[in-house]
Amino acid sequence: MADTWLVVGLGNPGPGYSRNRHNIGYMVVEELAQRIGASFKTHKARALVAEGRLGIGGPKLILAKSQTFMNLSGGPTAALAKFFDVAADHVIVVHDEIDVPFDTIRLKQGGGEGGHNGLRDISRTLGTKDYYRVRAGVGRPPGRAEAADHVLKDFSTAEAKILPFLVDASADAVELLVSDGLLAAQQRFHGVR
């Protein structure tokens, strides 16, 4: 269905992970669900799913939070794409990105996974890298700290004050990508810092 988009927010399930940097994808799809007045329900694809339209008569959004751990996000993503008959060029994955400074958003279609195991698993199960990514910057860890430890920690106190604005802007980026296309979304968000 050409006007249907699958938007997958990456994260880890469970309350212990809910405020981690790695879970910003969950936060963004939760914001989108609130905007379209949709509630998440359990789906057989091992995901929580919320469905609704982007505006009256607008494109349909299928918002998903995988209930597997981050590194196994591909199975639920591919199963949902198949169930809802959504091609890879109508799949948007929202995820944390350490190679983008905190409070910055970057969008792209295709390309590498940058060491992100959740993306690697999605590329493998979809059989293509040609899906969209909304990359919410969480920045690099300080000093010689491990990237894996950095993304599995909660946002700092200073970051937590800005986080609602980053989540809101990331949801805006998804909406603009769906309504106006990748170039328009890149022009709007790549100039913002």
The assigned CATH architecture is 3-Layer(aba) Sandwich
Strand content: 15-25%
The biggest beta sheet, please? 7 strands, mixed
- Multimeric organization: single chain
Mean pLDDT figure: 94
The radius of gyration computed from the alpha-carbon positions, rounded to a whole number of angstroms, is: 15 Å
The ordered H/E elements are EHEEEHEEHEHHH
- The helix content is 25-40%
- Given helix and strand content, the structural type is alpha/beta
- Please state how the strands of the largest beta sheet are arranged side by side: 2-3-4-1-5-7-6
* CATH topology descriptor: Rossmann fold
Give the full name of the CATH homologous superfamily: Peptidyl-tRNA hydrolase
Q: What best-fitting shape do the alpha-carbon axes yield?
A: globular
Low-confidence stretches: none
User: CATH class, anyone?
Assistant: Alpha Beta
Number of H- or I-type helical stretches: 6
| N/C terminus separation | 35 Å
For the record, the count of structural domains works out to: 1
According to DSSP, the number of beta strands is 7
